[in-house]
Amino acid sequence: MRIPTVRIVSALALGMLIGFSYGLVSYKFDLFPVTVIRLVKEASFDDDTNRVGFRATEGRLMLECPAAGTDVAVLLIAGQSNSANHGETRHRPRQGVVNFNWFDGRCYRAEDPLLGATGYGGSIFGRLADRLIESGAYRSVVLVPVGVNASLIERWAPGGDLNPRLHTAIAGLRSRGLDPTHVLWQQGEADAMQGTDYASYSARLGDLIDDMRARHVDAPVFVAVASMCHNPGSQAVRAAQRDAANLATGVFPGPNSDLLDSLVYRYDGCHFSDAALDELAGWWFEALLGPTKGLAGEAGQGISPR
Q: CA 161, CA 228: separation in Å to the nearest integer?
């Protein structure tokens, strides 16, 4: 039986429409095949896990790194996907926000996706940098993201395969006459999924901070509460993150990102929506300026959504 040409054309058109629509959805929500394509692209950078991350500088404006000073903030940002470029929407910060690319040791005008971390979407931290400059607290902000999606804390602690990323970034900054002024830790979802207990998470986080202190990074460390991703999260991980704060050792609470627990804030049930990226930028701003205003202790312990 011969199928009418019009039916064949209609079926092909419908198939193309379905394929195009799914392509848009898979790109937005990081579904198959986009996930596989991105993983292959990232893996093709280098077999060394310390070289995984976004580092395409084509079209990026290279800048002179700013000279160190009290009006320059240097944010070393580590953790997993929600510390990196996996947010829903991209952002291009204002003038004065610089992205230090630890892959090549150079500075570029910051824009999402930030050089140095995994992912191809948006980030909290360009938005945070805008707030820091707009407030008058700093003239310039240098962003140094090193985050890797789905990474456990044991991979960042001394002896872990991602620990050298921190060392390389710190050494690269120092070659430019800069040192971190703040260390931001946004991680915990992978450990919640794995079932890491309180004692283990606390010990590894303590080892990680001790390792940075041993490398003469004296900057305050801010630890976010983060454990939720496609599940309610982990009380053990949250408690370990809260209890890490210790004024005597220069460790302060970051924001409690687990409070953003609806699809309004997590476009795929895990990663941050545009609304959440803006909200968290504000919470991180309050956390970073809190110690200088006598507010330390509240930022990570339960800021509620506005």
A: 24
